[in-house]
Design goal:
CATH architecture of the largest domain: 3-Layer(aba) Sandwich
Structural class: alpha/beta
Largest sheet: 6 strands, parallel
Strand order of the largest sheet: 4-3-8-7-5-6
CATH topology of the largest domain: Rossmann fold
CATH class of the largest domain: Alpha Beta
Length: 246
């Protein structure tokens, strides 16, 4: 974890940049303590602001990175600008590149049946030498969940991607991190779908302009209601954000 966190509506966001964050995660793989990584965007932080139990779960994360340009803009409103957006999918790629060929083991958990397997193939193509030690889809009952936990524990991955969507993935990691035997656990939403190719990411131009949200809205107009969280988040930071600062 970086030495400093910025308090954004009660959520402590780490102030490290992408490279620093990736190096911290690689270093965490050398230790025996579980290291949890949460990557909240504006929508997730606003949800945490309204749900105290979830807020506590988020803040128990070993690392909390700003996944979303809205969080970076919020830091500027608070006069404590974050160095850059550190999105979960991007951070996952940087870490995968760093550990490829080193013998570090990766486990993929989440998505619809077959997605994790497809993602595993694509990741191995992108980063030759990556060792995928196991996969599991995100559709499970209590019995299957125990089987997944046991499988992860038996394989003891250095890096575990948990892609169940918020708030489920953070809640799941927080509840089970001490019994999984995994070293670094990252909650990264729909990233397995992007790795697998079932969901296309926004073009680079949209990414650089911080307009991935607009691209997703254009592709899926049904997301309009969810997108209302963005202006709500901005207004909430403007009205209440400064009272959370030291």
């Amino acid at each position: 974890m970086s030495n400093k966190r910025l308090n954004v509506l009660g959520v402590g966001v780490d102030t490290c940049n992408m490279e620093e964050a990736a190096n911290i995660l690689v270093s965490a793989m050398e230790k025996d303590e579980p290291f949890s990584v949460f990557t909240p965007n504006s929508e997730i932080i606003l949800y945490a602001y309204k749900n105290p139990d979830y807020l506590e779960i988020l803040n128990r994360g070993s690392m909390i990175t700003p996944d979303g340009i809205g969080v970076v803009h919020a830091s500027k409103i608070l006069k404590r600008p974050l160095p850059e957006r550190v999105g979960g999918f991007d951070l996952a790629n940087v870490v995968l590149k760093k550990i490829a060929g080193t013998g570090r083991k990766v486990y993929l958990f989440g998505g619809k049946p077959g997605v994790a397997e497809d993602a595993a193939k694509k990741i191995c193509e992108l980063y030759p030498g990556t060792e995928i030690c196991g996969t599991a889809d995100g559709y499970f009952d209590a019995e299957k969940e125990q089987q997944i936990i046991s499988d992860i524990h038996d394989k003891k991955p250095d890096l575990l991607f948990v892609c169940l969507g918020f708030p489920k993935q953070e809640t799941w990691i927080d509840a089970h991190k001490n019994e999984l035997g995994a070293k670094v656990m990252m909650g990264i939403g729909g990233s397995l779908d992007v790795f697998a190719g079932t969901v296309k990411r926004a073009p680079v131009a949209f990414q650089k302009l911080g307009l991935e949200w607009l691209y997703r809205l254009l592709k899926q107009p049904s997301r309009f209601i969810r997108m209302l969280a963005l202006p709500k988040f901005g207004f909430t930071v403007l009205l209440h954000g400064k009272k959370y600062l030291d």
